[in-house]
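Anyone opening a protein record will find just a pair of labelled lines. The record below illustrates this layout.
***
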Amino acid sequence: MQFGIFSVGDVTTDPTTGRTPTEAERIKAMVTIALKAEEAGLDVFATGEHHNPPFVPSSPTTMLGYIAARTERLILSTSTTLITTNDPVKIAEDFAMLQHLADGRVDLMMGRGNTGPVYPWFGKDIREGIPLAIENYHLLHRLWREDVVDWEGKYRTPLQSFTSTPRPLDGAPPFVWHGSIRSPQIAEQAAYYGDGFFANHIFWPKEHFMRLIELYRRRYEHYGHGAADQAIVGLGGQVFMRKNSQDAVNEFRPYFDNAPVYGHGPSLEEFTEETPLTVGSPQQVIDRTLSFRDHFGDYQRQLFLMDHAGLPLKTVLEQIDILGEEVVPVLRKEFEALRPAHVPATAPTHADLVAAARPAAAPGTKEEEEEAVR
């Protein structure tokens, strides 16, 4: 199973000190967090995409390319690439370029984002969000798999004999996740293509995401990609840990209370009861995360949000150390012991995708087979 960190890249005032990091500090902090994730033995670092304050990651491939040059093993991903407001041609070329630079350590998550004004900023209509997601991804899927594309759709100018460059590394496009917190149409889209489905269930109760994931699994099987329990599922989550659970609650509470998304709303206790947010000891995080399997079935990727709401970089790095040393090793062992042999343990890597793309070798004659053995 793959474990990692995702960041939304918010620039938030630390409520305990009143200090707000600069954009440069926050961008460099995200890089430091990615490097720490690899050092701690995690598998994935993912960045969001935003085009408005208080967020800084407007160019995910720029950041991930820089991180690629400073890491060796880490899978580099996005926790949203805006399929609705980005040009599919630019996505195809940017991520193929990143593939080459990172030697294939790349995948990405398509999403519509949660900032309504981004649509007019890029000349789009939010009322067309779902049709944009469907049409743009259909074009992107073709651009990565066909050397020459003729295209005519509703939302961009036609393409005639177009080849996106560079071509995907080794002829294998990056693995794609479709992320959604609310839309069954996106779960259906992920199932249709046999892609992954990522439920970032950090805000809503589990029952909502159980329905979306069950739909995705059922439709994945319907489209012939495998059994429902073999569908590729990823989950989000947020944790804050200290050795003593009450210390964790006391330290995290001011950050929770003033968080830009859920601050000044339900109490910390109410929020942890209704959502996957876990604030407590490492063992509590282990127990809570293992319970996700009971709700969603076996899944392949777990990403944690750890740098949100103004937490100091020093604290975030401490959290990643705890995650890597005390939590993830136990989770790997426990999830693997529970996973049936026919269910994929991880999302497909670049090597997996290259191997799957190779045509089966034609059967040789008996003489050829004997010669091969000799």
Notes: Residues 309 and 337 are 35 Å apart (CA to CA). The radius of gyration is 21 Å.
